[in-house]
């Protein structure tokens, strides 16, 4: 019988293979399409939104982040750190540097902040709001720390091709509040 960890790993690998097989032009178009759905997110005015710098063949959140900035939201990017991710303000024109796990973020001189909303990368998701990350637990640990004082809004960003029938959720897995793909926004 397949263990829970093995099942998650298989689902992760299958979804990532589907993502990698997508036509590069369709991936670009999908990233641009995210910005067209910015109003559907219904974020509180002026809230701090944590985006992410795309790696490999992830959907590109930068057009959406630009649209959020135009709507008056402040932006930040995660930095891989111990004991969990930290977030630095992203100003227009900021110089970025390696931030761990292949990502980029503002350097240590940038203000460290606490996001209200997290736009989260993922490997796979299901229609119940469960997600599978890349297996390192960066967002799980960060959310556990961030949500000590209050709940944060977590929105997964992915391609439709990354959806699976069912993600086996464990007690420490925090479900998403919504998922945004090239097909639009779904709230859970």
TrEMBL record:
Signal peptide position in this chain?
none
Which top-level enzyme class is recorded in the Swiss-Prot or TrEMBL entry? ligase
Pfam families linked? 5-FTHF_cyc-lig
For this protein, the Enzyme Commission number is: 6.3.3.2
The record's listing under Gene3D superfamilies reads: NagB/RpiA/CoA transferase-like (3.40.50.10420)
Q: Per the entry, which co-factors are needed?
A: Mg(2+)
Q: Which reaction does it catalyse?
A: (6S)-5-formyl-5,6,7,8-tetrahydrofolate + ATP = (6R)-5,10-methenyltetrahydrofolate + ADP + phosphate
What is the similarity comment for this entry? Answer: Belongs to the 5-formyltetrahydrofolate cyclo-ligase family.
Protein name as catalogued: 5-formyltetrahydrofolate cyclo-ligase
């Amino acid at each position: 019988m397949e263990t829970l960890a093995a099942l998650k790993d298989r689902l992760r690998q299958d979804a990532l293979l589907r993502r990698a097989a997508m036509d590069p032009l369709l991936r670009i178009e999908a990233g641009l399409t995210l910005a067209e759905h910015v109003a559907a997110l219904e974020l509180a005015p002026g809230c701090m939104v944590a985006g992410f710098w795309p790696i490999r063949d992830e959907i590109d959140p930068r057009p959406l982040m630009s649209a959020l900035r135009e709507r008056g939201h402040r932006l930040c990017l995660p930095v891989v750190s111990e004991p969990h991710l930290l977030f630095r303000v992203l100003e227009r024109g900021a110089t970025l540097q390696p931030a761990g796990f292949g990502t980029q973020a503002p350097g240590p001189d940038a203000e460290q902040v606490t996001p209200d909303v997290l736009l989260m990368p993922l490997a796979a998701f299901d229609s119940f709001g469960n997600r599978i990350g890349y297996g390192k637990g960066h967002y799980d640990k960060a959310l556990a720390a961030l949500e000590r004082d209050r709940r944060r809004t977590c929105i997964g960003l992915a391609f439709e091709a990354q959806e699976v029938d069912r993600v086996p959720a464990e007690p420490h897995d925090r479900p998403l509040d919504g998922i945004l793909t090239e097909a639009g926004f779904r709230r859970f």
